[in-house]
Amino acid sequence: MTSPHSSTSKTLTLSKIAFCLVGCALALSLSASAQTIVKFNAPGAGTASGEGTVPLAISSTGIIAGYYIDSNDAFHGFARLSNGSISAVNAPGAGTGSGQGTYAYSINSTGVIAGFYIDASDIYHGYVRSASGTFTTFQAVSGDNTLAANINNGGTSAGYYIDASGAYHGFVRTSSGTITNFDAPGAGSGSGQGTLTGGVDCINTSGAVVGNYIDANGVLHGYVRAANGTVTSFDAPGAGTGSGQGTEVSGINDTGTISGETIDSNGAFHGFVRSASGTFTTFNVTGAGTGSGTGTEPENINASGVIVGQYLDANGVNHGFQRTASGAIQTGNVPGAGTSSGQGTIPDSNGPTDLIDGEYIDAGGVAHGFLFKP
């Protein structure tokens, strides 16, 4: 866990848990007086390479949730209010050693946060934190690693757990604490296989959950699980069929429109939008690389169908983009973002009023938060 970001989607796995995700009208006109980029660092965030501040989710009221990595490489959640004040979010029982601590991953309209923490024994536990700061911690299955990564406005959270064999299984937890575990048909059962949810905004108001499953051959496939438990799997056009290739999902809005990316047979990323009826539209941002580990990576879709994300150029540098529901794409970079491989601008989420949060990684490899106000 040496870097707060990796060029992968918001699907969480233990091997890339410290990634994060990563505008838009962002680069349209960075100098326009009506548009503002606010940079920020969480108090206590480290200042060395692989440390810093990583915003993830933004609520309809402009509260940002995320995490920061301190100088000892421990993780701490944070909540940034719309007035700019930042509070630490540390779950009871979270470890304080390198690679341990608290992740704040998703936030709903009432300020309730869902996330997970890693204790001193390196066990993962899910939690829900009320707007007043009260934590409720839980395990999807006793003794297994549990990662909560989404919460909707009704307080239903979703994530996945990892069993003793290293396989992944999805779960949904109601606001009253009832947990339902599930597996997508076709998911593998070996280590590194199984069913994962996406993160941040991969459950909508109706309770539909989206994510990926990894089959016995290591290929990724998308799925949507309806609130009644029905699971529909899908593969986006152009998705590769080899190990580590396939379809990755990054978000769902209240109309049932899904955003995500494919990994093709060369290991390059391509964006897609899937309508509630199952129709796909694929797209690539101009300037995105076409080689392995480069390309177009949507990260979130808001209620209006606007997608934000990043594209990686041929040199592995991250740049932000925004795509409207009609398909118009704008690109941009936060001033101060680094220009070498693994650096750059990484939008993560966009709210209903097109506020965008994310991080930029500077020339020293340090992550800093930003908020873009159109």
Helix content: under 10%
Number of strands: 28
Give the helices and strands as they follow along the chain: HEEEEEEEEEEEEEEEEEEEEEEEEEEEE
CATH topology: Methylamine Dehydrogenase, Chain H
- CATH top-level class: Mainly Beta
What's the N-to-C terminus distance?
33 Å
Domain module tally: 1
How many helices? 1
Major sheet: 4 strands, antiparallel
Computed Rg: 18 Å
What's the helix and strand layout?
Elements lengths: L24 H4 L7 E5 L11 E7 L5 E6 L5 E6 L5 E4 L11 E7 L5 E6 L5 E6 L5 E4 L6 E7 L5 E6 L5 E6 L5 E4 L11 E4 L11 E6 L5 E6 L5 E4 L11 E7 L5 E6 L5 E6 L5 E4 L11 E7 L5 E6 L5 E6 L5 E4 L11 E7 L5 E6 L5 E7 L1
Antiparallel strand pairs: 1-28, 2-3, 3-4, 4-5, 6-7, 7-8, 8-9, 10-11, 11-12, 12-13, 14-15, 15-16, 16-17, 18-19, 19-20, 20-21, 22-23, 23-24, 24-25, 26-27, 27-28
Question: Any overview of this molecule?
Answer:
The chain has one domain (14-373): Methylamine Dehydrogenase, Chain H (7 Propeller). Helix content is 1%, strand content 43%. The protein has one helix at residues 25-28, and strands at residues 36-40, 52-58, 64-69, 75-80, 86-89, 101-107, 113-118, 124-129, 135-138, 145-151, 157-162, 168-173, 179-182, 194-197, 209-214, 220-225, 231-234, 246-252, 258-263, 269-274, 280-283, 295-301, 307-312, 318-323, 329-332, 344-350, 356-361, 367-373. The longest helix is centred in the N-terminal third of the chain and has 4 residues, at 25-28. The chain is globular. The model is unreliable at 1-34 (pLDDT under 50).
